Amino acid sequence: MTDKKKRVGILISGRGSNMMSLIAAARDPAYPAAIVCVLSNRPDAEGLRKAESAGIKARAIDHARFKNRAEFEAELDEALHEAGVELVACAGFMRLMTPGFIERWRDRMLNIHPSLLPAFPGLNTHERALAAGVRVTGCTVHVVRAEMDDGPIVAQAAVPVVDGDTAESLAARVLEAEHKLYPHALALFVSGRVQIAGEKVRGPQVSINQEKALFSPPLKGP
Ligand code: GRF
Asked: Which domain, by its residues, includes 152?
């Protein structure tokens, strides 16, 4: 049964809470993916320790040791291939990738971003969402393409912005949704229940938990 599971490698740079949500989901024998390695470009990433404690092979490949991005990525590629990785899941991986690396993993690399893409790509997402005054934000799992935070969208979760939100309170609410969305999206993707067609992700089985609109502020008072 294990050999039918898609072998997933996770790339991180920091805390690794999304990584842990994938590791936790993959403990279910029915989950269609196995997390076979975790790689970090930062040796001090908290997530490396968390992955090791969870019994996952974890290794730092310090980008600062390499002359350029391509050499760093060559080592990353080697580590991924050594672990037999079939699909890469970026989870807070804060390194820009070269088009060459992205092309080598074309349609085999996912990322999670804390906004409803294409809104607010890049950094400081929650600050920018608050500055724009949006009443709904969220998170997106997408297939990685050469442009940053761009690519076919696999799944999204909408999260309300509430009065008095700070970037921290909003980030915490979105992160809770991220932890549910990423395992869900990864399972849909690796099991083939969704496919990429014409740079959009299609699939009759794309399920959304809540088919009704999310109103923010809500229609009825509390
Ligand atoms: C998450 O908000 C993710 O969407 C973004 O970086 C953050 C990583 O957090 N790409 P963690 O390391 O998964 O806790």
From this structure: 111-204
